[in-house]
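[job 0412] stage=complex_fold ligand=uracil status=START
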Amino acid sequence: MANLTVLRHPLIQEKLTYLRDKRTTSRTFRSLVKEIAGLMVYEITKDLPIREVEVETPLAKAVGKEVAKEITLVPIIRAGIEMMSGMLHLIPHARVGHMGIYRDEESLRPIQYYEKFPPNLKETKVFVIDPMLATGGSALGAIEFLKEREVEDISFICLLAAPEGVEAVYEKHPEVPIFAAALDERLNERGYIVPGLGDAGDRLYRTI
Ligand code: PRP
Ligand code: URA
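[job 0412] stage=complex_fold status=DONE, emitting structure tokens
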């Protein structure tokens, strides 16, 4: 799938294995999500444009570098919040726009219930963040919301992707790259990713 990049760094893959394990506690699950998200964003941002800036060291002037494009992280509440926190640790100057979306359990359709965005969104590079790309409904809801606000530079970052979700995004928005820690086999009859890791929000916040 041309729009998908799977990040195969050994540390990401090892941590993902612990995340999938049903014996992993919520406390460890939350830490792992943050750690993986940090490693992912480190890889994903390696080709960001940079510009030269002058700084004064205690001894002399030096030419340094800074990222030349403003970054906006857009976590999909709830489960995207912990990933965003891991990324913000590495990009502390990023802005954050929150989107609340949940799936209706019967229809699996996305229900949008909240949004709060920084200004000048369309000039920034936007990373939409959600651990699970299942049917793709939530991702599409977020991408369409951003495109309606003229945002052009959108990437989607998830931990696990199902082929169905990757295809759904590609069909409507082939220019939006998807970065994932793994591409899983399929969705089950309830729209869960298999083998997956279960319900990300429930495992993060012990709502089971
Ligand atoms: C989960 C997940 C995604 C969505 C993915 O959220 O965090 O947002 O499902 O599924 P989709 O690709 O089929 O849309 P959920 O609806 O469980 O909401 P929550 O974060 O509030 O738990
Ligand atoms: N949402 C989750 O949290 N897990 C899945 O497997 C699919 C959607």
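The first strand starts at residue 4 and ends at 6.
[job 0412] exit 0
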